[in-house]
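Methods — Computational structure assignment.
A single polypeptide chain was analysed. Its primary sequence is given first, followed by the predicted tertiary structure written as structure tokens.
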Amino acid sequence: DRAAYVAGVRRVRELIAAGEVYQANLCRVLTAPLPAPDVADVDALTAVLARGNPAPYAGTVRLPAHGVEIATASPELYLRRTGRTVESGPIKGTGRTADDLLEKDHAENVMIVDLVRNDLGRVCATGSVTVPALCAVEPHPGLVHLVSTVRGELADGAGWPELLAATFPPGSVTGAPKSSALKIIEELETAPRGPYCGAVGWVDADRGTAELAVGIRTFWIERDPPRGPVLRFGTGAGITWGSDPEREWQETELKAARLLAVASGVYEATGRTAG
């Protein structure tokens, strides 16, 4: 809830002051009962999201063995591979408009770009990692993001196992240093993220091509939890020393508001996001 999230942001700032971490992504998982599980259609949810919140990395994934169905409208590229070239598009920094973006948002983005450069540098040829775009302002439905591009050429002998081991989980949804951020996330987040903040997409190993999105702006249905079928949605924010706890809470609300309104039919009925 709000009090626990704000307290979590304060705790991250304490850990930053203590030198444990520079940035950590702190997330919430929202849960609602699935009112009619027998007729719940994850494809219909994906279609509603595509109309009300168009996104470059949208789709449906079903994992029947796990009782999980995923509908994503992700705006963020985790990994694109074309032959030996690999690219990531980390998003960090969010506002309603470009005028809302703060110095803190740019610092947040640059820190994660350095992290992604380091991750790719572990499996790419020396000197091949570049940043073709840094902190570009990119409009999305209902908000704007700062988006950067990091690119490299895979070193000889590096393939999918090495690439995923070096880069997963995505830097933008963990923090820097990644190892420290993951420990803090484990300490502070009270619910598992599930598919949220993972990787959603496709890989064609024969052709050496792939496009994997970061699993944000993502709903998932769990068919078999102890209390019956539920619908879940994750939202979060990157916490730095410059973070204001209440503003970070509002950022998580901003990221969730439009998607929740679209999924519930409120946005389609009124043409606007409910408060």
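Note: The chain has one domain: 2-266.
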